[in-house]
Design brief:
The chain is mostly beta strands. It contains five helices and 18 strands. The protein has one domain: Porin (Beta Barrel), CATH 2.40.160.10. Helices cover about 10% and strands about 55% of the residues. The chain has a 16-stranded antiparallel barrel. Strand 4 and strand 5 form a beta hairpin.
Length: about 375
Amino acid sequence: MKKISLVLGLLAAGITSAYAQSSVTIGGIVDAAVQHKTNAGATAATRGDSINSVIPGGMSQSRLNFNVVEDMGGGLKALANLEHRLLIDTGSAGSTNFWQQSWVGLESKEFGRVSLGRQFNVLFDAMTSTYASYKYSPYVEPFKPEIGMTLGARNDNMIKYLIVAGGLAAEFQYSLSEGNALAASANGKSSGGFLKYSEGEFAVVGAYLALTDTATSKQVKETNFGGSYTSGPVYLSAAWGKTSFDLGFPAALNAAISAGVGGALGANMATTALTDSRTMTQFGGTYQVTSALNIGANYWNVKQTGVTPATGDGTMKLMNVVADYAFSKRTEVYVHFDHTVLGGNLIFANTATKRDDFTVGVRHRF
């Protein structure tokens, strides 16, 4: 009886200890801005018209996040994450997926982390962890060419494994199709990984991901390489990526996974199923002028080739300049200017070939 009481006592103490070392953090971002967009008329006749609007996120998309960590002892942790994206200007959901992230996993310092559910993919992880466009913000929400080279940024039904050893980090993912065809929400079958090395001020990474549309067995493949240099107030980054499409890969899916290349241009770049490949070169940097003020700029050069030149060939030159001032650790104001120039057979839906965006906004983290 004493032995049973002792065991029950130890179990109770262990449970109490586990709960004491568990945490559930509720946080997120609220971000809104006013934007002036040129050459934004709906038709060719009105293409020169400008539009002024309140946009839901001039730096980041607003979100609500639930993050769970339980320290179970012996270096083992249980993790879980739920993240909802929203459009602050209307209060509506930011996606058909109410939870843009929804995963659970285990992590050990010795064996790494394994997680299951809807998560960011390896391309997105490689970019944000190694060569993000801006040191204080991985990208600018309404103008994010680099996101178009991450094949949708997230995948459903994913098994992901991350291991870190000194300056080396490796991550692998596999998504089960579960009989579902690839869709705008980035379902379908996937496999890929990245390998990263960081030492002092330098970091480099290479990543690969393949998505398969199970309805047609056609694939799209992405290969990325990037690096960064950080020294005091200076942050510099550069990257190169190539997206390759199987002949006959569905045009609607091409548009969905290309969203972000030139903002709303993503769909217009992929209105044909005859896109063969797309390459992007990116470089830029951030300079911390004071503890509160950051300035930065980035440039992207995109080239697209089609199976036949008349249907898919074209170029894009994009640039973005940002100034960000932090009133506190949580609240900041920003202003940024974006410029896009199209060439070849790539045009905006209203037939324009140039567009400028001027944006001023505020972002609060909680």
